[in-house]
Amino acid sequence: MINEKLLIMDLENVKAQMRKGVLEFCILSLLSKGDGYATDLLNKLKESELIVVEGTLYPLLTRQKNAGLLSYRWEESTQGPPRKYYALTDKGREVLKELQSAWKGLIDSVDSIVNQ
Amino acid sequence: MKKTLTINLANQVFHIDEDAFYRLREYLDRIEAHFSDKDERSDIVSDIETRFGELFGQKISPQKQVIILQDVEEIIRIMGDPAEIGGEEKAEERDYAASASKPKRLYRDPENRVLGGVCGGIGQYFKIDSLIVRIVFLVVFFGFGLGLLIYIILWIVVPEARTTAQKLEMRGDPVNATNIGNFVKDEFENVKKTLKGKKR
Fold this sequence. Notes:
The structure holds two protein chains of two kinds.
Chain A: H1 4-32, E1 36-37, H2 38-47, H3 57-66, E2 70-75, E3 83-88, H4 90-114
Antiparallel strand pairs in A: 1-3, 2-3
Helix pairs in contact in A: 1-4
Chain B: E1 4-9, E2 12-17, H1 18-34, H2 38-59, E3 66-67, H3 69-79, H4 82-99, H5 118-126, H6 130-144, H7 147-157, H8 164-171, H9 177-199
Parallel strand pairs in B: 2-3
Antiparallel strand pairs in B: 1-2
Helix pairs in contact in B: 1-2, 1-3, 2-3, 5-6, 6-7
């Protein structure tokens, strides 16, 4: 007999993995349209339901920054403390280009299988 | 009437109820414990603290000047549990760790030793009772006179499992936050048991 609980966990894991790969791509895409700070990104990603809990974003940003894909600067804000604005680096732009073509390829492949 | 504390969160001052403070402290500690990489951790924690500050700012007004437990609970729900946060972007790694053969290394086991813990370590490595290893060593020693030499060489060559990570490696458990947490808990229980035993 299949363990129902395990099945649900696996399903959540699959969904989380799907989101995970796409999320990094989306962060780079959003930042390619203009620099932004974490809360900007959060609002957009939550609107499109790509992020379930806010905390998920911060480790991703930190890792992309440490990988040299993003840089950041502090900017004064009219409300509250200074904000950390992230910008795409040259390396980040290159990676984004790669991901864009990979994404297109993936959509085509998945489409051709799913809609066969 | 309630006692409040004043905290500095991302360079902003907040008044916070005592119970709310402890809830927040506990949550931030858990976040911190969740990320093992030092460089990552300080960035992530400070980013999350900044976000807390931002959301706290929306919770206070001239009519409500104190952060209460309910506010903290609500924001923690928005931020997500540390396991959830790490879980989403660590899902792949965890899968990999579970499917790949667990890394296992030969260490001397300091907790199961007569001399240097060599036999204990070999027992752990092959998942056999260390008593059997010891008997084999003794038989080889008396039978062929080689056992002692082999033992001394192994004593010198095989490192002792000193850190928690090494002890987990010795047992063949993957080194991750959950296992380290469990290990520390087990150790704590062991010490508690020993102490209780001694008192009696």
